[in-house]
Write a structure and sequence with these properties.
239 residues; alpha/beta; Rossmann fold; two-stranded antiparallel sheet; 6 helices; 10 strands; globular; binds S-adenosylmethionine
């Protein structure tokens, strides 16, 4: 059995099998995006990418509790294909959009990519959901102004999240942090779809963002990565 509150080195396709059945409340993960990144032990350029994603998702199913949720962060074109295939195994909850500012990746042939999607799927109907209020994006709209003046706290629920990338200058950036998720995004997903004491899995833990935020938010966690994880202290920031 894989030890809890530990990051394990190995191929997640093998190590997921070693997790106790029916023990995981939430999976939050961004696998390699199949765009040729160099991840030391892994060549991020698979011909069978979507098939591979489906395979490890299927390995996760028996490990999830009946009210478990899986949040898959990826580019929309990948998530759209993954979504089609996973509907045979999971129930669709929703697709969130994570938008970020970026000054890289410009092309003369297309618009600059500045969002990813988060495919939220559940194993059963009774999944955990703790909706998080966010500030109105249009506080100057007369109807919203009126709502606020009538006592509304100026917040509502959105499925589009505007959260900055974890940049090289971010406080929480790890030295080896390629493709490091922002703490704020991970924090949002963990709080939304789990409770204190729950067990959270990230089978592609990278710099440990999901693992560290899980511990910070008083959840338990299992991290897996094919590369050696460089121990970092539990992160209490959201920057
Ligand atoms: C997009 S990065 C994850 C970044 C992470 N969310 C963070 O915030 O730092 C993908 C990770 O998947 C790992 N990886 C690639 N293939 C793997 C496999 N078969 N099993 C486990 N980890 C793998 C890579 O080493 C890399 O760290």
């Amino acid at each position: 059995m894989l030890e809890i509150n530990k990051i394990h080195q190995g191929d997640c396709m093998d190590l997921i099998k070693e997790i106790k059945d029916n023990s995981i409340n939430l999976v939050v993960t961004d696998p390699p995006y199949n765009i040729g990144w160099k991840y030391k032990a892994y060549n991020d350029n698979r011909k069978d990418y979507i098939e591979w994603c489906i395979k490890w998702c299927i390995e996760i199913i028996p490990k999830l509790k009946s009210n478990g949720i899986i949040c898959l962060i990826n580019y929309p074109e990948n998530n759209n294909l993954i979504y089609q295939r996973l509907l045979n195994f999971f129930k669709f909850v929703q697709q969130l959009v994570w938008c970020y500012n970026t000054n890289i990746g410009h092309s003369k042939r297309k618009y600059t990519r500045s969002y990813r999607t988060i495919l939220v799927l559940s194993k059963g109907d009774n999944y955990t959901f703790n909706p998080i209020l966010q500030e109105y994006k249009n506080p100057t709209d007369p109807r919203i102004k009126e709502r606020i003046s009538n006592g509304s706290k100026g917040v509502t629920h959105y499925d589009v999240l505007n959260i900055n990338l974890c940049k090289n200058v971010s406080k929480s950036k790890k030295n080896n942090g390629i493709n490091q998720l922002p703490d704020k995004l991970v924090n949002f997903l963990i709080k939304s779809y789990s409770n204190k004491g729950d067990l959270i899995l990230d089978p592609f833990v990278g710099n440990g963002t999901v693992f560290n935020q899980s511990i910070y938010l008083k959840r338990n966690s299992i991290g897996i990565d094919i590369n050696k994880y460089q121990e970092v202290s539990v992160n209490s920031s959201q920057g």
